[in-house]
Specification:
It is built from 22 helices and eight strands. It is of the alpha/beta class.
Length: about 400
């Protein structure tokens, strides 16, 4: 047989660009009548429902949806503006609430959809399906290219979707995001079945569906960038007061906190501790025209921090409610460190064998807790920590061996 003269570039299929929706960009629904019409048409469709939502992360304080995209076989695609229609969505909720929804990275969109009274009866998450299938890249564009041979070009995902009116190019991008989700679902169903991971995926999808919105973390001000450069409780108190003042303004104006005052300015003010408006305005950012109008607010926050008694100052080292950082285990509890090392090695080997990322096999935090606390029943501890049955079956024996080896 003669050698092939085909080059590697020629043998690699070239993805087909997906530039516009097959049926064009649908008009944006902005009225109660439009919602009722969409609800009727979607109810008359067949099969699962493709869903996506666009927010204004980085621009707005809230995580509300500013556009909702829907598509169902036999009904077509719909673009819904939830701002003018927020009080008129009951017919839509009734029409789609009993359906299986297909989303990509569902945990990102379900909370803002729930705020609108929209929730699914079942879920298929194409991003999570890609993780369980062992795909090295699980962004929507990457999975669509790999499974469907189509090219979804980068668009306006990080744009300010609170903008009105929404530009035509943005609406085209938004419509394309649900254009192929239903076809992608079928491809991923086949992929998961071929790998005998259908039940794993079903358990993961249901876990995401029932998870609800993420709980706010305590002491969120401690997540201020560069805060670790501060060494005294008084400086941390200044960060806390400035952060709180900024957060109140951001919530009231529905503007991203970083656009009110950047983290770097908060840390700079906490470090310099200016005692006058003149000194404050000499610091970077605070001297700008926008910040000069808020000088008294920021100075008052610093004054509150200075006035706090020592007993009310935040500790430099945040107290732990669970295991300490793993980097300290070898010194605090060498046996626990050995348990964790054995568990990690076993889970890594399992990950390579079943082609599922380590973090999807079991929450790393739950692994640390089991290894640190050494529970009497590992399975009970995993169940209490939210591990799904398939995770307990696969990872449980590895943790049992790790715990017993150091008992």
């Amino acid at each position: 047989m003669p050698e092939s003269t085909e080059s590697p570039a020629e043998s690699t299929p070239v993805p087909v660009p997906l530039l516009v929706p097959a049926d064009g960009v649908p008009p944006v629904i902005e009225t109660a009548a439009g919602v009722r019409d969409a609800a009727e048409r979607l109810a008359a469709g067949t099969g699962p429902l493709a869903v996506d939502a666009e927010r204004a992360s980085g621009f707005r304080y809230s995580s509300r949806a500013y556009l909702v995209q829907l598509r169902r076989e036999g009904a077509g695609s719909f673009l819904l503006d939830p701002i003018p229609t927020a009080g008129d969505l009951a017919p839509l909720a009734d029409a789609i609430g009993g359906l299986e929804w297909v989303l990509h990275s569902a945990d990102q969109d379900l909370p803002c959809l729930a705020e609108l009274g929209l929730a699914p009866a079942a879920l298929f998450d194409t991003e999570l399906a890609g993780r369980l299938a062992g795909f090295d890249r699980v962004g929507l564009a990457a999975i669509v290219e790999r499974t469907l041979g189509l090219e979804l070009r980068k668009g306006h995902g990080a744009a300010d979707w609170s903008t009105r009116p929404l530009p035509d190019s943005w609406l085209n991008y938004a419509a394309l995001d649900v254009e192929v989700l239903l076809e992608l679902r079928e491809a991923m169903v086949s992929e998961l079945a071929a790998q005998d991971k259908t039940q794993w995926a079903a358990q993961e999808f249901e876990h995401v569906r029932q998870a609800g919105p993420p709980q706010p973390k305590p002491d969120r001000w401690r997540r201020t960038s560069q805060i670790h450069s501060l060494k005294s409780p008084r400086q941390l108190a200044a960060v806390r007061e400035l952060w709180t003042a900024r957060d109140e303004i951001a919530a009231k104006r529905d503007i991203s906190p970083s656009r009110i005052l950047p983290d770097s300015a908060i840390v700079a003010a906490a470090t310099a501790d200016p005692t006058s408006i003149e000194a404050l305005r000499k610091l970077p950012v605070f001297g700008g025209p926008r910040q000069r109008r808020s000088s008294r607010i920021w100075l008052a926050a610093l004054e509150r921090a200075r006035a706090l008694p020592d007993a009310d100052l935040p500790p430099v080292n945040q107290p732990f409610t669970g295991p300490p950082p793993a980097s300290r285990w070898a010194r605090k509890d060498p046996e626990a460190a050995a348990r964790l090392a054995a568990a990690k090695a076993g889970i890594t080997a399992l990950s390579e064998r079943v082609h599922v990322p380590v973090e999807n096999l079991l929450s790393p935090d739950l692994v640390r807790r089991v290894c640190w606390e050494r529970p009497v029943s590992v399975d009970d501890a995993l169940a209490a920590g939210g591990a799904r049955p398939w995770q307990r079956e696969l990872v449980g024996p590895i943790l049992v061996d790790a715990v017993r080896a150091q008992s």
